[in-house]
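Aim 2 progress update. The chain analyzed this quarter is reproduced below.
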Amino acid sequence: MNANLMIVGQPLFTQDGRRIGNALIVKNDVEHSSNYKITTDFGNDVMMSESDINSVFYVSRTSDELVYPRLVDSPPGSKGFVIAYSTATSINERILKKEIDLEILPWKDSLDNAVVQVKLVDWPTLITRLGLPKNWI
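Predicted structure tokens:
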């Protein structure tokens, strides 16, 4: 699981609803990349490390072979990456609130994975908002 990067917009599914409910990663502390701000379904905000998140949540992964997120070839004038479909829709609807015009496309024949694709002009904003590696810009 260490090969996978947790990103803003990623849903987190509780292992024990008596301790904490389902949540969403809403911010990645860029200076301390292992710290994340999460918001639970009840609206509580909590700062957690990656190990804390892994100890109380099932982190959505749909394939052991696919490293998330992963850059993919895109048409001229755009860039994209592969992510779990649930994370892609969460990014669009709950994090970006449709502020950036992005496309969510099927990844190969998978119903569980999707390509998030944006215009080149929006790429740096998307990378920054999601806390993805700066070398992707």
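The chain has a mean pLDDT of 84. Helices lie at 50-56, 85-95, 123-130. These observations will guide the mutagenesis experiments scheduled for the next reporting period.
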